[in-house]
Amino acid sequence: MDPIINFLNEIFWGYVLIYGLLAVGLFFTIRLGFVQLVYFPEMFRAVLGSNKADKAGITPFQALCTSLASRVGTGNLAGVAVALYLGGPGALFWMWVVAFLGMATAYAESTLAQLYKVRNAQGEYRGGPAFYIARGLGAPWAGAVFSVCLILAFGLVFNAVQSNSIADAFQGAFGVDKLWVGVGLALLTALVIFGGIRQIARVAEVVVPFMALIYLAMALYVVITNFAEVPAMVGTIVGSAFGLEQAAGGIAGALLNGVKRGLFSNEAGMGSAPNIAAVATPDPHHPSSQGFVQSLGVFIDTILICTATGLMILLSGVMVPGSELTGTPLTQAAMSVHIGGAGQIFIAVAIFFFAFTSIIGNYSYAENAMTFLRLGNVGGLTVLRLGVLAMVLWGAYESVATVFNAADASMGLMATVNLIAIVLLSGTVVKLTRDYAAQRKAGQEPTFHAADYPELHGRIDQTIWTRNE
Questions:
Q1: What pTM does this model have?
Q2: CB atoms within 10 A of CB 13
Q3: 175's torsion region: left (phi>0), alpha (psi -120 to 50) or beta?
């Protein structure tokens, strides 16, 4: 079985996704007229426009925080360190490039998720790639494949990986036995996920801004205290990206590792974040507005948080030729330079918040997939939730290398299906974007009118898009 999984991973991550995600990001960037630049102010307006949701959905801010809960994980700490170790400072530059292109992809997939969303048996919004694949392309079988892969990767295995990271960090920083870390983490997770997506959204909108602001504040402190070195460091990052500075791996290593880490971190094009984008009540009441919200999520994840980690490592001076430090130990060593012995504790606490919120965010995606598979009833969701808790407990104590490879293959398949779908549905994304822009230009609040889209008749739930709910 392992040779098959390894072969699939080599195909998906060595060829299809690395080039596919970049190509699709470039495709949407050009076709949508550099939407990530032109509409950057609109992203903030769409997030902050309202704190109210109708009875069926969550607020745009809650949707942003829940998607960030999943996006911002241990990859933003350990993953960035690995990219810098293997690719040198230039890897950070290519992470920026990937994030810029990914913002357009994230806009497209989340706009589609909003458009094709439905109500579940409880009258709550649900949606995501499985729904726009089935309803937009008339391929429910592909939606089912996507959903199963999402549940396996995000709902189960990746949560074991996040749990393992927390257990390692707490054992190293505080000497706590991994098994007890797993038990405590499973109980804490249960308190949140058994309340469903609304409970997850309420927790995320409090915890995610807190953890992100504290982490970015620490990075700002590091930059200010090392301000004299910052201009030269920026020059090193850019120079290394293009092979002008000596660095591990040269330009090829910087590009490859920066691209891989950027794609894995911000998840744009993977089809994960659209699952929570569909649950939101958009403000303005137009599918594009939630696309803007999730595009901002990519910016926050990579341009802000991954950059914060990168700068703290590079400005510490601990990454020197011949050093074997990489991953979490490299990030901890860097923080110890900046704030002394508290550095290891700070990173351990940061890993806890980043990884725990990833667990609950990942679960919210899996719940959407269960709805598509018609398993979103009490029994089905209880089985899923118990499965998540079991993986959290198991992951804290055991090595997760083999199943992580299997999850990588599942994520590779779901991402491939999603990329094909959003390209095939790109015409609809273009029409929605132009419609939004025209209404904004006319001084109107953009509102989706289903009658203007006769080609979507019978494919979307038109009752969702009426104001009188």
A1: 0.91
A2: 18
A3: left
